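Re-running the complex after MR caught last week's input typo. The corrected sequence lines follow. Everything else is unchanged.
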Amino acid sequence: MKVKMLSRNPDNYVRETKLDLQRVPRNYDPTLHPFEVPREYVRALNATKLERVFAKPFLASLDGHRDGVNCLAKHPKSLATVLSGACDGEVRIWNLTKRKCIRTIQAHEGFVRGICTRFCGTSFFTVGDDKTVKQWKMDGPGYGEEEEPLHTILGKTVYTGIDHHWKEAVFATCGQQVDIWDEQRTSPICSMTWGFDSISSVKFNPIETFLLGSCASDRNIVLYDMRQATPLKKVILDMRTNTICWNPMEAFIFTAANEDYNLYTFDMRALDTPVMVHMDHVSAVLDVDYSPTGKEFVSASFDKSIRIFPVDKSRSREVYHTKRMQHVICVKWTSDSKYIMCGSDEMNIRLWKANASEKLGVLTSREKAAKDYNQKLKEKFQHHPHIKRIARHRHLPKSIYSQIQEQRIMREARRRKEVNRLKHSKPGSVSIVSEKKKHIVAVVK
Amino acid sequence: MSAAGVAESLLALSQQEELEDLPKDYPLNPSEDEEDIDGERKHQKLLEAISSLDGNNRWKLAERSEASLKVSEFNVTSEGLGEKLVLSDLLGPVKTSSSLAAVKKQLNRVKSKKTVELPLNKEEVERARTPLEQEVFNLLHKNKQPVTDPLLTPVEKASLKAMSLEEAKMRRAELQRARALQSYYEARARREKKIKSKKYRKVLKKGKAKKALKEFEKLQKENPTAALEELEKIEKARMMERMSLKHQNSGKWAKSKAIMAKYDLKARQAMQEQLARHKELTQKLQAASESEEEEGDVEEEGELLVPDAVNEIQMDADGPNPWMLRNHSSGTKEARIQDPEQLPEPVAHETPESEEEERPGAEEEILLNEFEERRSLRKKAELNQDTEPVSRQEPKDSSSQEVLSELRALSQKLNKENQSGKQKVSSARTVRVVQRKDPTEEEEEPLLLHRPERAQTVEDLEELGKEGCFQNKEVPRSVLEGQQLERNPNNHPGAPKEKKKKEQMIDLQNFLTTKSPSVKSLAVPMTIEELEDEEERDQKRMIKEAFAGDDVIRDFLKEKREAVEASKPKDVDLTLPGWGEWGGVGLKPSAKKRRRFLIKTPEGPPRKDKNLPNVIINEKRNVHAAAHQVRVLPYPFTHHQQFERTIQTPIGPTWNTQRAFQNLTMPKVVTKPGHIIKPIKAEDVGYRSSSRSDLSVVQRNPKQLTVRHKNQLKKNSID
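Corrected-run output:
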């Protein structure tokens, strides 16, 4: 007698090891899983709501400074180490994991104007109001040794900023002029000027490392090539630029934090029109720093808040503020792109999550998958009105909120006037200038 | 007594019983009786006479209302005759033969006879005494007008009977339409009548006066004779005023003003104004002629100025069909409209007047005319086929007349309201009409008095007479026919223009769908009509030019139809081919099965734009869903389909395999926690030499670059 029976290949249903997930046979027939869009929409809605529920970006406040924090620097090799300079000339080195100050140096008399680390991470440079440039060892002095800088350079004028080359032993300072120094020398290799105003900040390009940009009080942004004796070109804006920051992933792109509450992202090849104008701050933007991924940047403003902007969006995706945080003077995005640090007037350094609702710590694979899925859903349904409303909702301090309203009214009035002017003038005599072009005065080569 | 005698008596009895149903004073027609029956009659009369001798009437005994002893089967009586009945007589064979048959015949004849017609003096009526009457009768006969029966002419009756179902339906529809139109205009007129604003009235009156004056001036230039007529009219109006004494201080208002005048300046002014008007109106004009004819005219006019309703009420009292009866007053007006070209003089004057003054009224008047015309045409076609030789050409006219009259009644009614406001102008018009028919009316006077109900038809006749048949009664039929044929085209030209108007007014539904027929079929081009039409045509042409090429309305209608179709719920077909029966290529499931498994969706609620012909209301839009929907196409997308596709593609693990899910949800930028992300390097993206991207430098000083370049290359190699 022949017995008929079902036979299956065990490979199809038996897992190889105990650690493997059980194989779950699934039928993906779409008719069995109807209402894809509504179901995903609900999921997206829930994800968005949960995002807002878990949005708790503030991590820690590093206090210890006895004056406003004027500058911040990241350690190039260690994620946990952060350096900060205060308005009383004190420099502190912090350990972020312990959230403690590990070292304090009285570096300057008067403000510490600028601080930067050497690309190898063994030493750092500071400039201060006392017209000196000092190089310090990253590690603390040994037992019984005195806290002394490695080198001290006495300058003729006050230095307002410093930045180190990303690969070579060269650094640049700015004040009356941009000086490029060899670490081994006490006099600059070359100094470049274009105009006579004080230069507030100088930054090396992290990719095209010979390039550097500076911004001066006479409202211009000047680009230099280190290998040349003269500056490359400059762009003059409506108002003064406080800082610039290069995009670490796109060599040509930099963003300027301006006094007119806006940030301008420029392509250095075409300075006459900024790539994007980022508007949301309601007061002067004091500092800007790119995320190491180059997709976003964070800006610190005099309006006591920091904002995170996507590079290609003109509006911020996030705003951070606390009651106690005063005018934010400096801001840095950590090298792992997860955290943001900001130093403010009221002597604190604050640590924020770059992604407000992100879960810290190690994620299991399923958690990660869920996170990715939710992120994708939010992206997919971001234009739907309810989701958009929930995702955009932020609480703002009253001062900022009212300022926003006020400025909206002002902007509207200006626009209306422009439209009226256009309407009542001879056709062709008046043209509406786009927001991007409006703020650029001139480009000089 | 013989058997024959018994039979006689029985017969007499039966006859009496039959005769009792008839009125007693009704004499049997002697000529109808047979001869032997005549004898019997005599005998019966004799018996009657004898029985009546003793005073009491025996007849009553013969009559029975209920079962009684007297009519039992056991004792048969013959009390009515006072004779004894013998059994043997009854047992003997009854002779039924010829005499009884004759009786039956007579009985049948009696039965079939209708009730008596009351006015029996037919001959008397028909007889014409005076030559005038003869003439009138002749005319009536010619047109098959009923002389005795006031309601319908035989032709009318015939046409009523001949009407088929469809035609009746159509006619009913037409009537309904007309009625709707009527009610609409009535409502409008009522509304307008209700306006109490004195200012409005004043302005209206003033405007009319001004217009009349202008017209008069114009007329004076163009047509002095017509102007003279007009002047006469004015004179008449003045006379009317004079007679009415309306502007003397006798009215209620005037009295109150007189009281107030002492104190109120305004009242005083009003009074003075009124007095001035009175003076002006009562002043005798020198130009006015004082002939007796004119006086007569005035009188007639006075009659005519009495509102039509007065006549109507009279007729309503005895006339059963108000639709038919109302005609009489509209007849005159109708005549004017129908053949304005008949009178060459007033035409020039009349057309502008009717255009300006009676715009609303004239519109539907002519529209109704158009109804009539269509009907008459149809009738004509039908009747031409008719083989009846008696009324060859008259039917055309009279049958159409009948229909016309109905519609005329409508139009007249509609106009009445409009006219009441414009007494002055309309009076002028009526005067002219009266003048036109003067000669005929004198002749008709006795007839009119004779039959007030038929006034309408007489007037119609008079109109016919205008056209020629009145003057010479002996006009051969062919001539008449020819004239009628002439008349029809004359009626035409007004029609097409008005058709369009009508459709605008009535068919809200078909407003967009109907096309105005722009072709004038067989119309002889008429100068007047052209003048009227010219403006309109100009406008139409301009519009046509502007929208040449694109038929916006049709496109819209098509779109709407599609929208309606799309919004209709579809039936669900659940038939499974091959289930329970043979299947395969070319085999269809049976009709029964299809019927069984076709789920019919119920009719949804009516569309909101059902009654709005030029609107499409989208009912798909759900307000609650709309709150969740994207309103504007988001930036990177250029077409809504792209966006919809991205939304419709599910990315979840429910719909995708694990691998696909991972790929779909992979973030664009992945960062590892705890790792420093270094700035990008040229090498990372495939560039070997870093200086290649140094475009600005390359442009600036290539010489210096070469040295530097070498250095850099060295360094890179060291690294």
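None of the earlier attempt is carried over here. Residues 88 and 401 of chain A are 33 Å apart (CA to CA). The helical segments of chain A are 36-53, 365-380, 385-392, 398-424, 435-438.
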